[in-house]
Amino acid sequence: MLSHVLRRLAASLPVMGFVALFVFGLLYLAPGDPAALMAGDQATAADIARIRATLKLDDPFPIRFGNWVWSLLHGDLGLSLFTNQPVAKMIAQRLEPTYLLMLMTLVISVAVALPIGVIAAWKHNTAKDRMVMVFAVLSFSVPSFVVGYLLAFVFGLTLRWLPVQGYVPLSNGIWPAVRSLILPAAALGSVYIGLLARITRATMLEVLQQDYVRTARAKGVENRMVLFKHALKNCSVPIITTIGSGVALLIGGAIVTETVFAIPGLGRLTVDAILRRDYPVIQGVILLFSFMYVLVNLLVDMLYTVFDPRIRY
User: Does 7 have pLDDT greater than 80?
Assistant: First the structure.
């Protein structure tokens, strides 16, 4: 088990190195002078010179990249060109709402998608199965921002059950923070629910045809035990893979969802940085999201060995 973890960690290091190289090279992907692009059309020569001096654009690329990586290893992501604040501090201030939003989305999605996927497989080719599939197709097809506006109109403006904008910090209480993120998490998880429900149904249909399931039913084991203890556990690997891969959907969807619901998280920070051409902030956020995605996939690999011990060998 330990050797497997070490191998996966070693395999993740080149990936993060390539990601760091790509993120750093964002400045050079656009044509023209990077300093002039970041300064904008109304910038003066002094503004462009200041940006060049701040980012040390006159140094050779290998030297700049080496210094940047060395700063990263010490937790220094540079300074924002717009606010002149440390990028690491700006990101730290926005971590809480984004991480809590993604966590709530995962919990809601898994809690909804797994049961309905199992029920659809159990009631294959019945009205319940068709209803679940229609719901999954609709939730997967409708963009999350459209779902967000609909939920805000129904539960926020019409029924007035939940807030439609802003975020309440955890320091003000767990329930107020969770309540402020229920609608955004439901909107962000709509696509995720459809994807996970369809994968669960497909894998469950295959497992339910296995001999050991028929044997368990022949012995009189009740359906709930057959479905959730025997069948669901043995089709957990593709489901876990889908959950891990879906983190990319959550990262991309969080940017749009936070903009719709005016949540001061990393998504809003990314949008503001792009509009201001604040490259150090953009680099820091992309690097953080990439690291998080690699970490989630590493965790998924570790979970494989828990649900299927054969993978250890």
Answer: no
